[in-house]
Design a protein that fits this description.
heterodimer, A: 176 residues, alpha+beta, four-stranded mixed beta sheet, three-stranded antiparallel beta sheet, 5 helices, B: 359 residues, mainly alpha, 7 strands
Chain lengths: 176, 359
């Protein structure tokens, strides 16, 4: 992009103005026919955060479909949370570290006895209120069992508020 | 002389032209948004229907559903009349625009034009001038300082440009010697030096530039959209208007654009003329001819007119998203100190050329 020079002496070409108009029209028509647009067709195309690089994923892209169905766990991504399961067993031991550290009181845990012989407790109820959550990631940092993570899924849309209060089952993500 | 069938044909033509005009207005609003988006590397509205083609319908429904607010201190009667005064002249002016060759049917001649007035151009200027009253009255009746300023600007802009515009057209009238737009379009089919079609742009290049600049001011489009100047005057003359009343102002602006484009095409780009196309087919000077049935010629001519109007409409949008707005004193300066003298010069040059029998 060129900017006007304040000290430049403008000559006849600028004074007539018409030639400059035509040049300006040339600039806009070039952009008109340019294929690359910066706007995205949002629900079909999403800006995905994979690693630290941003890339646009087109509608029919397999990655995009995978991403929308099973959001990847990505370094530094601060999207919707997931609770990790080892096969059938939840990793969480209901220690309430995340509930304690959460600055917004978005997490509510009710413990029960674990079915896993190695662990004493497991959450009977694990509620995560996304309307309160600020996606600070403190819960992930606080977790001693690496049981909670955040994904790159940032499209958190609901028609009613209760849909944004996530339960243990909706937060489930099985690790093979 | 006038039989029932002819009346019926013209009535039908009225309905068709009206429908086409309003449809074009609707899609022009979409085109404006899409084209502006493309020029700014965006996508624009593409959600409603394929390519966003149903967006005008959605907009229309939204306009009708909106609350219709009349300010308490406004002059109620004038406030309601003003939008109508804008849109009615805008739609009326199209009546004299020809969009095809006369059609010779057995027993009657059909003009491809709703009304073949002998004062065609004067009619357009007279009716188009009425549209300004809608803006001025709307600005005054709203009882709002921004609206009033918009109306005032519209008035002074109008007197700066209308003269230059009329003077530019005088050049055309001198060359073609008729006020009937159909005759003007017809004369542009004749050849200059035996091979060059006598289009207005070739005969009146200076007049064309003056006319197109004035037309942009006349239709309140960028770079002369001072009456609505949203950066300075909120919404200008339609600040207080909402719902369908606002839509009428909006449609009036776009209908004016279409008429202006049609006028530009008719006066300077041969109207419905296609070079070397006559009533019986193409006749190339010194190269033989290509005969065609009359209906095919008519279709080609209407299409050619539509393409020309479409080009000028695109130019309107193209210019809008390219140029910044003029300052108000610059605008009146340009009108009085540049365009009017140039238009007078154009008249003199044309007169001299006509006396020398070049034109």
């Amino acid at each position: 992009m060129t900017t006007g020079d304040r000290n430049k002496r403008y000559g006849l070409r600028e004074a007539v103005y018409l030639i400059e108009i035509v040049r300006g029209l040339g600039v806009t028509i070039r952009h008109f026919f340019r294929r690359r647009k910066f706007a995205m067709n949002y629900p079909e195309e999403k800006l995905s955060i994979v690693g630290n690089t941003k890339q646009i994923i087109k509608t029919m892209d397999k990655d995009a479909q995978r991403l929308s169905e099973r959001p990847e766990i990505v370094m530094n991504a601060r999207g919707k949370h997931k609770l990790l399961f080892d096969g059938d067993l939840i990793r969480c031991v209901a220690c309430k570290m995340c509930e304690t550290v959460c600055p917004f009181f978005a997490i509510y845990i009710e413990p029960e006895e674990s079915r896993d012989p190695r662990k004493e407790r497991a959450p009977k109820v694990f509620e995560l209120d996304l309307t309160r959550c600020a996606y600070c990631g403190y819960c992930v940092e606080a977790c001693p069992e690496n049981a909670i993570t955040m994904t790159s899924d940032y499209s958190l849309i609901a028609k009613q508020r209760p849909e944004l209060v996530l339960q243990k089952e909706t937060l489930k993500r099985v690790i093979e | 002389m006038v039989d029932h069938v002819t009346v019926l044909i013209y009535a039908l033509m009225c309905v068709v032209v009206f429908a086409v005009l309003l449809t074009t207005v609707a899609f022009l609003t979409l085109a404006e948004r899409r084209i502006s988006a493309f020029m700014q590397d965006r996508l624009g509205p593409n959600r409603v229907g394929p390519w966003g083609l149903l967006q005008p319908v959605a907009d229309g429904i939204k306009f009708i559903m909106k609350e219709d607010i009349v300010p308490r201190e406004a002059n109620r009667l004038l406030y309601i009349v003003a939008p109508l005064m804008t849109i009615v002249p805008a739609l009326l002016t199209f009546a004299v625009v020809p969009f095809g060759h006369d059609l010779f049917l057995p027993g009657r001649v059909i003009n491809f034009q709703i009304a073949n007035f002998n004062v065609g151009i004067l009619y357009i200027f007279a009716i188009a001038a009425m549209g300004i009253f809608g803006i001025i009255i709307g600005g005054w009746a709203s009882n709002n300082k921004y609206s009033l300023l918009g109306g005032l600007r519209s008035a002074s802009q109008f007197i700066s440009y209308e003269i230059a515009m009329s003077l530019a057209v005088i050049g055309v009238l001198m060359v073609y010697g008729s006020l009937r737009l159909n005759n003007i379009a017809q004369y542009q089919g004749s050849l200059w030096f035996g091979f060059l079609p006598k289009w207005g742009i070739l005969v009146q290049p200076l007049g064309f530039i003056i006319f197109i600049v004035s037309v942009y001011a006349e239709t309140n489009r960028v770079p002369f959209d001072l009456p609505e100047a949203e950066a300075e005057l909120v919404g200008g003359y339609h600040t207080e208007y909402s719902s369908m009343k606002f839509a009428f102002f909006f449609m009036g602006e776009y209908a004016n654009m279409i008429t202006a484009s049609a006028l530009l095409a008719t006066l300077y780009f041969g109207g419905w003329q296609v070079p070397y196309l006559h009533n019986i087919g193409f006749i190339f000077p010194g190269m033989g001819m290509l005969a065609m049935p009359q209906w095919l010629v008519a279709i080609i001519e209407v299409l050619s007119f539509a393409v020309k109007v479409g080009f000028f409409l695109f130019l309107f949008l193209w210019v809008r998203w390219t140029l910044p707005r003029f300052r108000f004193d610059q605008l009146t300066d340009l009108g009085w100190k540049v365009l009017i003298p140039l238009a007078l010069l154009n008249v003199v040059i044309t007169a001299v050329l006509i006396v020398l029998r070049v034109l």
